[in-house]
Amino acid sequence: MAINLVPAFFGALIISLAGPATAFWKVPCSSPLVVERADPIISPGKVSSHAHTILGGNGFGFNMDFQQARASTCSTCRVTADRSNYWVPSLYYQGQDGSFTSVKQVGGALIYYLHRTDPGQDEKTLVAFPEGFRMFAGDPTLRDYSASVQQQAINFTCLGTTKEETLGLPNYNCPGGLRAQVFFPSCWNGVDLDSPDHKSHIVYPTSANSGTCPPGFKSRTMSLFYEILWDVNEFKDKWYGDSQPFVFSNGDPTGYGYHGDFVNGWDVPTLQKAIGTCLDGNHALDHNGDINSCPALLPLIPDAESNGCIIPPSVDEPVSGVLKALPGCNPVQKGPGRAMPEKVCQATSTIGKPDTFYTDLTSTKGWEYVGCGSDVAFTARTLPDASTSAKDMTVEKCVDFCVGKGLTVAGLEFAEECYCGKSIPQDRAPKPGILGNCMMKCAGDKGEYCGGAQTISLYKKCDGACQSGNAQVGVVGNTTTAAT
């Protein structure tokens, strides 16, 4: 497979931010919010054609508006004022036997906000993304490189090597991971929040990431740039044949069909204030993009809270692990022609009830799930009164153990550990509206969940009838609700 190298002017400008001093800040996103076939821009109200790795606010849904984004109770991205959603296609390893294995996404993402202007334009004249704004970059059907401005905005960095960036997936291993990068257009027509193709309302300047906006598109927004890292090195000993073995979820083994989506969820006055005050001349912002150096973006969401911001998937199909086929109907198409959809697709198109991450004991034992709390290392236990561990641990086994000790609160963590207590300390209790990262499968039953690392799945004995029900936060259609 031919590898096109990134033109020097483009790669250097993005990564080193060479040229005139321009402020920027990086919004760190800790981990995916959810991975599933959802895309409220391209496929509103439906199951989308391929799987996406989605980050940002937990107001995300199959059909969403600005108010829903702002109603998010948490975000995987750490600026409190930002409840936006950011998403890209997921990456898979295609085995020699035809199977597909999900590639681990490392460390969430970095979302760059750059003060790029027309030559001579004052940075303060950049406009914040307005309420309801959304956009799409890239083209999922492309399988060849045509040197268009749109394609110059997508590239890949092979970490752990000294090789140049490439415009398609590199044909060699990346020991430090494969970093996929997409630069969004920034020349807005100043009127439309979206357009039928989700691109015509905002276009690229003359050089993809810099230059002059064309006539009719003189409202210049902040320039948005995603960096997302994939652990391809895990498969370093599984290469075969004469081409790289990775494929994006849209059936793309070239990388030319990589793309990104953005739905604005910012508190718009806060974003505009940051644009007007966090300018060049601030060394930390000119060179490091450190959001701590921009007071308008503070306070930040604590790491533990952003890591626990998760929504359960609502499409009943596997998207991780080893799969017989890519989620949806996405045969691998190498090109060079555009990828074509399958004429007959038997993949599910149903948006179902969100998955639950608890065991319902309300009718069998008179206990209910309280939520995912914390159990901080090297401090007193959240539930200190009794404990046990077992290689066959289940939720039922832990609750029975606590009942035997005469205690009314049970908690599970690290898949096989059980703790009991009389009450839940307020500072360790589940946070309202946050699902929490209690996603470890129980050692004795892989259909149940038993906490995580420094997170604890909490159950309590009902006081009489179990009236309050099990705690669960999910997204149903386009509404953030409690799913019980």
Secondary structure topology:
Blueprint (H helix, E strand, L loop, with lengths): L7 H8 L8 E6 L4 E3 L15 E5 L9 H5 L14 E5 L1 E4 L5 E3 L2 E10 L19 E5 L10 H4 L1 E6 L17 E7 L3 E2 L13 E2 L15 E2 L2 E8 L15 E3 L10 E5 L4 H10 L5 H5 L15 H5 L14 E2 L43 E8 L11 E4 L5 H10 L4 E5 L3 E5 L19 E2 L2 E5 L5 E7 L11 E4 L2 E4 L2
Antiparallel strand pairs: 1-7, 2-3, 3-4, 4-16, 5-6, 5-15, 6-17, 7-14, 8-16, 9-10, 10-14, 11-12, 11-13, 18-24, 19-21, 20-21, 20-24, 22-23, 25-26
Describe the 3D structure.
With 484 residues, the protein is mainly beta. Helices cover 10% and strands 25% of the residues. Strands 1-7-14-10-9 form a five-stranded antiparallel sheet. The radius of gyration is 24 Å and the shape is globular.
Strand content: 25-35%
What is the helical fraction, as a range of percent?
Answer: under 10%
**Estimated radius of gyration:** 24 Å
Write down the overall geometry: globular
CA(first)-CA(last) distance: 50 Å
Count helical runs.
7
Residue windows where pLDDT falls under 50 for at least 5 positions = 7-20, 474-484
Averaged pLDDT: 91
Q: If strands are numbered along the chain, what order do they take across the biggest sheet? A: 1-7-14-10-9
Structural class: mainly beta
Main beta sheet, described?
Answer: 5 strands, antiparallel
Number of strands: 26
List keywords for this structure.
globular; 484 residues; five-stranded antiparallel sheet; mainly beta; 7 helices
Short description:
This protein has 484 residues and is mostly beta strands. It contains seven helices and 26 strands.
